[in-house]
Amino acid sequence: MTKEKKLTKVIETNIENGWEAPIHGEFKGVEEDESTGEYLAIFKELGDDVVFKMSAVLFLFHPKFAKAYWGEEDYQLTTSCDTESDKDGLWGSVSDGESSIVFFMGSVWQYYLQQAVLSKDLIDYYYKNVRYKLYCHGCCKPYTAILNRDVKVKTIQCPNCGGRHILAPIMG
Ligand SMILES: [Zn+2]
Questions:
Q1: Is 37 buried (19+), middle (13-18) or exposed (0-12) by CB count in 10 A?
Q2: 89 lies in a domain?
Q3: Rounded-to-integer distance, Cα 19 and Cα 15, Å
Q4: How far is CA 76 from the centre of its chain?
Q5: 3-class state of residue 33 by DSSP
Q6: Is the pTM of this model over 0.70?
Q7: How many structural domains comprise the chain?
Q8: What is the pLDDT of residues 136-157, one digit of tens each?
Q9: What three-state secondary structure class fits 64?
Q10: Mean pLDDT over residues 84-97, rounded?
Q11: DSSP string for 79-144
Q12: 82 lies in a domain?
């Protein structure tokens, strides 16, 4: 799949999520600027010949775009510690004197945007790590999770009932 198609899918997904582009018109696709190698999102007003183009990096790094794409819930901690911890920015740590555990204390979008900035390819990262609304067949409750877009069957541990069920996507 080309970079243009991946980025188009990312933008379409986020428009469905409620993201509003900071530019007029309806989203019409993506093109690569041949002289700079930049990817441009194209917007066009209905019935108007004027086309607006915006560099994708202007919104891919923007908190508003990341919030709509990955969600604003607290990032799920991998440890259930509730002891006092050292906090350094968005990362915290606890220590029992011998070993220590480092964990993330921010929101889901903050975690994924950090990873995206440091990833090999920003567009690939956005494309792969997508937010799903899922439905647990065990306890019948909806749940959201960031999963790899290309993985067809999602079996993850349900946070509601703890069972390892096949979680069927509701949308996305
Ligand atoms: Zn469940």
A1: exposed
A2: no
A3: 5
A4: 14
A5: coil
A6: yes
A7: 1
A8: 878 888 878 888 887 766 677 7
A9: helix
A10: 68
A11: S---S--EEETTEEEEE-SS-EEEEE-SBHHHHHHHHHHHSS-HHHHHHHEEEEEEEETTT--EEE
A12: no
The percent of residues in the chain predicted with pLDDT above 70, rounded, is: 85
CA of 167 to the centre of ligand 1 (A): 8
Q: Could you tell me if residue 132 is inside a domain?
A: yes
Task: Tell me which amino acid residue 45 is.
Answer: E
What type of residue sits at position 154? K
Does residue 97 form part of some domain? no
Query: Under DSSP, is residue 20 helix (H, G, I), strand (E, B) or coil?
Result: coil
Q: Ligand 1 is a single-atom ion; what residues have CB below 5 A from it?
A: 136, 138-139, 158, 160-161
Going from the Cα of 61 to the center of ligand 1, the distance in angstroms, rounded, reads 34
Q: Which residues of 44-66 are buried (b: 16+ CB within 10 A; e: fewer)?
A: beeeeeeebeeebeebbeeeebb
Q: Could you tell me the pLDDT band of residue 4, with boundaries at 50, 70 and 90?
A: very high
Q: Distance from the CA of 162 to the center of ligand 1, in angstroms? A: 6
Q: Could you tell me the residue range of the domain that residue 41 belongs to?
A: 3-72+107-171
